[in-house]
Amino acid sequence: MPGLLDAKTALILGVANRWSLAYAIAQAFRREGARLVLTYQGERQRSTVEELGAELGAELVLGCDVTQESELERLGAALGESLPGLDCVVHSIAFATREDLSRPFVETSRSGYLLAQEVSSYSLVAVARTVAPLMRQGGSIVTLTYLGASRVVPNYNVMGVAKAALEAAVRYLASDLGPSNIRVNAISAGPVKTASARGVKDFIKVLDTVAERAPLRRNTDPAEVADTAVFLASDLGRGVTGNIIFVDAGFQVMGL
Ligand code: NAP
Known about the structure:
- This protein is of the alpha/beta class.
- The protein has a single domain, classed as NAD(P)-binding Rossmann-like Domain (Rossmann fold), CATH 3.40.50.720.
- The chain contains seven helices and seven strands; from the N terminus they run βαβαβαβαβαβααβ.
- It has helices at 21-31, 43-56, 69-82, 110-131, 157-177, 203-213, 222-233; strands spanning 9-13, 35-40, 60-63, 88-91, 139-145, 182-189, 244-247.
- The protein has a seven-stranded parallel beta sheet, with helices on both faces.
- The longest helix is centred in the middle third of the chain and has 22 residues, at 110-131.
- It binds NADP nicotinamide-adenine-dinucleotide phosphate (NAP).
- Residues 14-16, 20-22, 41, 45, 65-67, 92-95, 119, 144-146, 189, 191-192, 194-197 line the site of NADP nicotinamide-adenine-dinucleotide phosphate (NAP).
């Protein structure tokens, strides 16, 4: 059976380990026939991501710290030299300090606020600027967000504010890049136990609450997030841009 992403080339930023949402997305993209390029943030992660990339049959595994303009430029140049073009990009990156995900939001430091915005929100703009010239046939950019962007989730704090900015950036980028047939969307995933999520104080309580109250009475499986990313990256999603799609067992519709 033909894959939904046959003949498409996908860049996936944010695979840290097998628990990463980006890893589940890379597996699903591979299953659907995409050629993969993965990135890692720094030397600390290099061998792990290279190993995962080899398992996934990735064509390239490149370094890119999204806070460094020079690294984004190098990434764009390396992709331009090695690939005929790019069709899909997954931005699955966020960071805030552990203190800012545990103390009251009102105590957020200036530097912690700016750091969360830079890594978790501005980086989407910087990545989109880097990849857009390579998406010559149009394409799809997908980022990952969370309900804490629009509702108060205990301890999500500064990351909720960064996700609100990220979601606004999705809309502005969709407007800018739409004439080039580049679509930009976000998946709002339900909570999943990953390295980043473990940085949020009392994260286990969030998982328990969702399993108890979500319409589907369970938590989100990373494979469900990944299949929605496949839809958005494929031609099935050709009419969808500027959207936030919830993949959260329905939790966001509940008032209490
Ligand atoms: P994860 O596996 O820890 O992935 C986060 C990734 O961001 C890691 O690969 C990390 O690299 C990367 N990163 C951080 N700073 C970076 C930088 N300066 N340059 C390049 N990469 C950087 O956790 P995850 O839960 O899968 O998170 C992926 C995305 O999903 C995030 O946007 C997150 O907010 C979102 N999300 C997660 C959940 C959840 O419950 N897990 C729910 C909704 C949305 P290093 O490991 O090398 O630092």
